[in-house]
């Protein structure tokens, strides 16, 4: 029985009040009737298989696993459309990279109703992209990409993802007050304001195009000392003939040319002379370009709002397959999402015990 099965009665009653737009736990093979593989030409797509994996806490707690190495994956599901106006949006799912992934995505994309599942590919328009992405030691991040005015905009913050082989829950919450929160395993790892953490809008301020640094503005903190002068004995050659070198006995001036001793570094060489620096009495500090209100900026009070959402999908590339996705949830209720992963810690502990043998 899955880790949330003990909450079935609660979840049923609670769902009457909460709006749960999609909850997919891959309980049986009927998932294949609801999820659609892309048939977009030009790429060799991999298949998902339903499994609990090589090690698990509960063998009946199964998700769908990428099963072929070096493949693109394109699988999506549509559901009844909704708008996020005036309410929270929660996107949540679990990821288990039990293959100890070296390079590949573990994220989801959220779509509007324009999605054609059988034609889904990397350039298909989406509304949100969220989840972990790993490639080598340099990329271990949580993507949070928002589409605004048909432009995909990346978050300005670096959010590190989990890189072990156990199950982890990723949760994105977007609120009507234009704030957001990212959680991993139910714990907040990042939060802030949409306008501050994405370049969704033009900047409020811009540099005044009419302003320029005055010609007499001196921003040199130090200057050469005009009273300083180069010592008379300063100039020395950088290299000198080696005084210990002697002409070889078998050297023939007629055959070998005139012998010259090899050159060595001059121990008395002092380099290029430069006058010492002193404080600049005319120093005015760094010039700061004055700013003005940006005429192209206009606040958007409902920046959070997605007018239409009705699809979610996995659009991935993986070098080494084996990632298991499960417990996909889209709702407007944060508490419901928290209850949905209430048994995650127990699941992880069971995986730790079994995982040690792999």
Automatic annotation (TrEMBL):
Q: Which family does it belong to?
A: Belongs to the calreticulin family.
Q: Which domain of life is it from?
A: Eukaryota
From the Swiss-Prot or TrEMBL record, give the protein name: Calreticulin
Give disulfide pairs as residue numbers: 103-135
Species source reads Phaedon cochleariae (Mustard beetle)
Protein's cellular compartments = Endoplasmic reticulum lumen
Biased composition of type Basic and acidic residues is found at 205-249
Q: Which UniProt keywords apply?
A: Calcium, Chaperone, Disulfide bond, Endoplasmic reticulum, Lectin, Metal-binding, Repeat, Signal, Zinc
State whether keyword Calcium applies: yes
The protein's matches in Pfam families, at most eight in alphabetical order, are given as: Calreticulin
Q: Where is this region: Disordered?
A: 194-261
Where do Acidic residues bias regions lie? 250-259
Alphabetized GO MF terms: calcium ion binding; carbohydrate binding; unfolded protein binding
């Amino acid at each position: 029985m899955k880790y949330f099965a003990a909450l079935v009665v609660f979840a049923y009653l609670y769902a009457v009040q909460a709006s749960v737009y999609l909850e997919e736990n891959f309980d049986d093979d009927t998932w294949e009737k609801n999820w659609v593989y892309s048939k977009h030409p030009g790429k060799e797509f991999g298949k998902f298989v339903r499994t609990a994996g090589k090690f698990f806490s509960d063998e009946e707690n199964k998700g769908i696993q990428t099963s072929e190495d070096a493949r693109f994956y394109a699988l999506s599901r549509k559901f009844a459309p909704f708008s996020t106006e005036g309410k929270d949006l929660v996107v949540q799912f679990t990821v288990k990279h039990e293959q100890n992934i070296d390079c590949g995505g573990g994220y989801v994309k959220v779509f509007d109703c324009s999605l054609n599942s059988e034609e889904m590919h990397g350039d298909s328009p989406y509304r949100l992209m969220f989840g972990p992405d790993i490639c080598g030691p340099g990329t271990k991040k949580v993507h949070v990409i928002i589409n605004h005015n048909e432009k995909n905009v990346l978050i300005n913050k670096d959010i590190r993802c989990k890189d072990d082989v156990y199950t982890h829950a990723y949760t994105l919450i977007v609120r009507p007050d234009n704030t957001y929160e990212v959680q991993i395993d139910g714990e907040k790892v990042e939060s802030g304001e949409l306008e501050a953490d994405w370049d969704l809008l033009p900047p409020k301020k811009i540099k005044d195009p009419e302003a320029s640094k005055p010609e007499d503005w001196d921003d040199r903190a130090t200057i050469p000392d005009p009273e300083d002068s180069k010592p008379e004995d300063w100039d020395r050659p950088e290299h000198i003939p080696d005084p210990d070198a002697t002409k070889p006995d078998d050297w023939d001036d007629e055959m070998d040319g005139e012998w010259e001793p090899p050159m060595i570094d001059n121990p008395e060489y002092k380099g290029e002379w430069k006058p010492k620096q002193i404080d600049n009495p005319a120093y005015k500090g760094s010039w700061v370009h004055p700013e003005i209100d940006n005429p192209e900026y206009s606040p958007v009070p409902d920046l959070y709002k997605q007018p239409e959402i009705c699809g979610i999908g996995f659009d991935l590339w993986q070098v080494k397959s084996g990632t298991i996705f499960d417990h996909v949830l889209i709702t407007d209720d944060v508490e419901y999402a928290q209850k949905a992963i209430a048994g995650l810690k127990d699941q992880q502990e069971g995986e730790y015990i079994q995982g040690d043998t792999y």
